[in-house]
Amino acid sequence: MARCISKLYELKGVRRGGDRKSNEAKNQTTPSVVSQIADEVGISQTQTYAYASIGKNLIPEWMELFGHKDIDIKKAYALSQLDTDIQLEIYYFLFHSRFSII
C-alpha cells in the first residue's frame, strides 16, 4: 500500500505533504488532494502521509519486512524519516551482526 499511495502522490502532484499556498487550499472549499487520496483508499490523512513517506523513503530491506508485516507502520514511518545510510546501519546491526537482538 505504501508504494501505491506514494505513486498516487506523484500522479496527483503532491509534494511535501500537499498544497497549502494555492487559492483553493486557502479557500478550504475544495478537499485537499491528500484528503481525496485518503478518502479513495479508506484511511486517515495521517496514515496517508505515513504510507507516502514509507513508500518514498524506506530502503528495500525494511520495505520487505514491512510488506511481510514484520514491522508495523509506526516503526516503518520512523525508519523512513532517517537517512538511507542510517537505515542500512540499523538493519545490518540488527540482522547481520553477532550481537543480533532480533
The low-pLDDT segments are none
Overall average residue pLDDT: 85
The topology string of helices and strands comes to HHHHHHH
Helix residue percentage: 55-70%
- Structural category is mainly alpha
Q: Number of helical segments?
A: 7
Q: What is the gyration radius calculated from CA atoms?
A: 16 Å
Biggest pleated sheet: none
Counted up, domains total: 1
In terms of DSSP E residues, the strand content is under 5%
Walk me through the structure.
With 102 residues, the protein is mostly helical. It has one domain (2-96). Helices cover 66% and strands 0% of the residues. The protein has helices spanning 2-12, 23-27, 33-41, 45-57, 60-67, 73-80, 84-96. Helix 1 (2-12) crosses helix 4, helix 3 (33-41) packs across helix 4 (45-57) and helix 4 (45-57) packs across helix 6. The two termini are 25 Å apart. The mean pLDDT is 85.
TL;DR of this structure?
The chain has one domain (2-96). The protein is mostly helical.
Task: Please name the defining characteristics of this protein.
elongated; 102 residues; 66% helix
Task: Set down the secondary structure blueprint.
Layout: H1 2-12, H2 23-27, H3 33-41, H4 45-57, H5 60-67, H6 73-80, H7 84-96
Helix pairs in contact: 1-3, 1-4, 3-4, 4-6
